[in-house]
Amino acid sequence: xxxxxxxxxxxxxxxxxxxxxxxSTYLVSNSLGxxxxxxxxxxxxxxxxxxxxxxxxxxxxxWEMPVRVGDEIAPLIGAAAGEIAMLPNVTIAQTSVLSALDxxxxxxxxxxxxxxxxxxxxxxxxxxxxxxxxxxxxxxEDGIGIDTQRVLDAIDERTRLVAISHVLFQSAYIMDAxxxxxxxxxxxxxxxxxxxxxxxxxxxxxxxxxxxxLSGGVLKWLCGGPGGAFLYVxxxxxxxxxxxxxxxxxxxxxxxxxxxxxxxxxxxRWLNGTPPIPALFAAIEGPRIVRxxxxxxxxxxxxxxxxxxxxxxxxxxxxxxxxRDARVRGGTVAFDVPHAYGVAQALLAxxxxxxxxxxxxxxxxxxxxxxxxEIERAVGSIDDILRDETWRAYEHTRSTVT
Length: 402
Ligand SMILES: Cc1ncc(COP(=O)(O)O)c(C=O)c1O
Fold this sequence. Notes:
Blueprint lengths: L2 H6 L16 E2 L12 H15 L11 H13 L6 E4 L2 H10 L9 E5 L4 H13 L3 E5 L9 H7 L4 E7 L11 H11 L2 E5 L11 H4 L3 E5 L11 E5 L1 H6 L36 H6 L2 H9 L1 H22 L2 E2 L12 E4 L3 H10 L2 E2 L1 E3 L3 E4 L7 H16 L15
Parallel strand pairs: 1-11, 3-4, 3-5, 5-6, 6-7
Antiparallel strand pairs: 2-8, 7-8, 9-10, 10-13, 12-13
Helix pairs in contact: 3-11, 4-5, 12-14, 13-14
The structure holds pyridoxal-5'-phosphate.
């Protein structure tokens, strides 16, 4: 990056941390964030410890990693050390939450929305129903957002849990989590936020929200790779509740191998079996860089670049499937272009990395390391592909990006 470019946009100094940016136009941080340059060293540390220490590596810090790596994420969500447990994925984190509550008559509903991530819905529809809960699904009027008032109206004295996305995965619509948490508190319900699309790209403060549970993954906006998901549980909820979907790592004395469960305190009680150590090594660098970059600067840049993307789409008459109001728009802009699937594949073949979703179109997720020029070029490439009909060659090919 030239000195001039980084003076105008200091976040571009972080580009050198991400090797893939030298080789492609990487606009898919909404799916998999770029790998930090420091990750191979971290993974080499893991390999060395396994090779040299063998089983002694567990006592050399491996057992503590699920909570220590969680501490790296804590400052990004306003949590304290010891309040976050790393788990393999968000589906498991949500299952833990679900399993910690009882759904007795009169307190048996779970409020979700039509636009929550399907994996989470599958668990709630299946397991929650077996546990005696009833899932109330709030619908969307436009397929982009969910009217806050509709969610508030669905929360009442029968509600046990409100389990919704903080930012909707398809449209990047930001839900009014503060209003929802306040309403839940009024009626004595708990709130579990799926923050996969918020942490790392918009400011999140669990204490200001008063949220009980917040889960997300490091692989998208936190550039921490697959296998690292996190679950924050408020100290009050951790004191009052314990998950029945559990395991020996949640025990106060796991190595006593006692037949009876005695839950550990704080984040430890939300663990289950043996942690995915390589994924935890890989997960350390990304959140550190995001912290150095600063979430307020990241958000300001994200608003600028997503606004520009919408301007570019509007100028071409593409249907935008993202909120137009920046205050309720997260980090991704999706727009539908003719032959969107084929166009997305042609972009990928040209080194412009984006993804495609049915009903949403081409999704573009710039991040703090994205240049303005990359955004202009990506949209320019779409123009070229539509003009010279290169999309035809890709229309029936299998996507290289899921
Ligand atoms: C909002 C949201 N929740 C959950 C997931 C995935 O969850 P898991 O970590 O279980 O794969 C995604 C993945 O894209 C997501 O966007």
